[in-house]
Write a structure and sequence with these properties.
Glucose Oxidase, domain 1, 2 domains, two-stranded antiparallel sheet, 17 strands
Length: 311
């Protein structure tokens, strides 16, 4: 309850940044050196209990394919270049003629299925745990809050099937998920949200990719401001969705990406975007073991990921 109260007070400060210190309300409750945020809510006991959810051994890859056609937040782009180094003219290596392909990625990391690290979003240049942009954000990589600091996330995953709850294949853009919607879907599915969980919303939105990219990019259903505060008060580690921003767009107010601000700088709660949730929803797999090892790219802001759900 105290954490929820602190969060509500912090959110109120969004409109008064000029008179209140952003460093005060982005401070970590886990101490001045904390760089992993809500991952502190994980524990060996939570892992053991989550492993007990495995009943069939069926696995689900939650990542979508990432390529040059993947729609992304402008100006992000992505492509893969495949080369055969040192093999000009069709020559192989050595008498056994070994040949090989190597690849170069030319693009942005924040594209496709991704995790937003704590160095991604701030308020007035202040990021998680009071870190000022000028003190840690460098062109050659973040000096704090890089994704390499994120520990393995192995915990209970909860899918909230908002499309099923609202009786539609694709939830309409601008539909906000706040307390009533979150609790309503959870009650219908017979699940509860607990500390240490990863909560993922299914809306059907990612199914628009390749079919209606213009609509996909223009807006989306997602977590509202009240819903974000509520999830943080539950002590969740991460919040994800089958959408490109997880939060509702158009925004509920004139504030821009306010849900991102609540999750990342204000509470250290990770964001998982463009999750492939349709197979989970089809199987009514509402609880599962969630497993994610984030790429150890030093100083990176985000990471392209393929989390695995096991039930």
């Amino acid at each position: 309850m105290r954490n929820a109260f602190v969060l509500c007070c912090s959110v109120a400060l969004l409109g008064t940044v000029g008179t209140a210190s952003a460093q005060d309300w982005t401070k970590s409750k886990w101490g001045p050196n904390d760089e992993i945020g809500a991952a502190n809510n994980l524990s060996p006991d939570i892992v053991v209990k989550a492993a007990g959810l495995i009943k069939t051994g069926k696995t689900y890859g939650l990542g979508i394919e990432t390529n040059s056609k993947t729609p992304a937040y402008p100006p992000r782009t992505f492509k893969v270049l495949v080369l055969q180094p040192g093999q000009a003219g069709g020559n192989g290596l050595g008498p056994n003629k070994t040949t090989y392909n190597d690849d170069i990625i030319e693009g942005w990391v924040g594209i496709g299925s991704q995790i937003d690290g704590l160095g991604h979003i701030g308020v007035d240049w202040t990021y998680y745990n009071g870190n000022k942009s000028g003190d840690f954000a460098a062109a050659d990589g973040l000096k704090k809050l890089g994704v390499e600091k994120i520990p393995p996330i192995v915990t209970r995953g909860v899918l909230l099937d908002m499309a099923g709850y609202l009786g539609t294949d694709i939830v309409k853009e601008g539909t906000a998920f706040n307390v009533a919607e979150i609790d309503g879907a959870a009650k219908k599915q017979g699940v509860e949200i607990r500390q240490g969980d990863v909560v993922i919303f299914h809306t059907g939105w990612v199914g628009l990719i390749g079919k209606d990219d213009k609509r996909y990019n223009a807006g989306e259903p997602g977590v509202g401001v009240e819903g974000a505060k509520y999830l943080v008060s539950k002590g969740v580690v991460a919040v994800g969705a089958d959408t490109w921003a997880v939060e509702v767009i158009p925004f509920e107010s004139k504030n821009v990406f306010e849900v991102h601000q609540i999750f990342l700088p204000m509470s250290g709660t990770y964001i998982l975007e463009n999750m492939n949730t349709a197979p989970l929803a089809a199987d009514k797999a509402y609880e599962f073991l969630f497993v994610l090892g984030v790429p150890k790219i030093t100083g990176a802001v985000q990471g392209i990921v393929n989390p695995v759900a096991i039930r």
